[in-house]
Design brief:
about 140 residues; alpha+beta; four-stranded antiparallel sheet
Length: about 140
């Protein structure tokens, strides 16, 4: 009989601890800051008109990331489909009380892409509203420049 009491006592304690862990894990603290990722609006890009198959394509991006120091550039997300390069430019908002009153810009942030085959490639930059900023580049065989 003593082992049954110990078993049930252990089961009850385990159940209570499980509920405590479950419910405290779901609570949000009032001061907990949520980081937000978003697609940056790109005003313009700068890239070469023509490169060779041996070259690296460098694309410079310009646009506004945010209106205070809590905004920053996060990363590029390029995706390749045959002769088209789709690029998303991601920013991050880390809210806080000490955000500097400055505009944050891409200021020529660069993406480097290599290993192109010969041909014409289209570059599409996804905008926050779903539209695309587009450009193109010609890739010629190495040694033709």
């Amino acid at each position: 009989m003593k082992s049954k009491i110990s078993f049930y006592t252990g089961l009850i304690i385990t159940t209570i601890l499980g509920y405590i862990i479950l419910f405290t894990g779901c609570l949000k603290l009032e001061n907990e800051e949520q980081v937000t990722y978003f697609i940056v609006e790109v005003d313009s890009i700068d890239l070469a008109d023509t490169i060779t198959t041996a070259d690296t394509l460098s694309i410079s991006f310009y646009g506004t990331v945010g209106n205070n120091g809590c905004y920053s550039f996060s990363q590029f997300n390029p995706q390749f489909y045959e002769d088209t390069i789709y690029i998303e430019v991601w920013g991050i908002l880390s809210p806080g009380n000490n955000c500097a009153a400055v505009m944050v810009y891409l200021e020529g942030e660069q993406l480097h892409i290599l290993n192109f085959d010969e041909g014409t490639y289209f570059v599409h930059i996804k905008q926050p509203d779903g539209s695309l900023l587009t450009d193109s580049i010609a890739v010629i065989p190495a040694g033709y420049r």
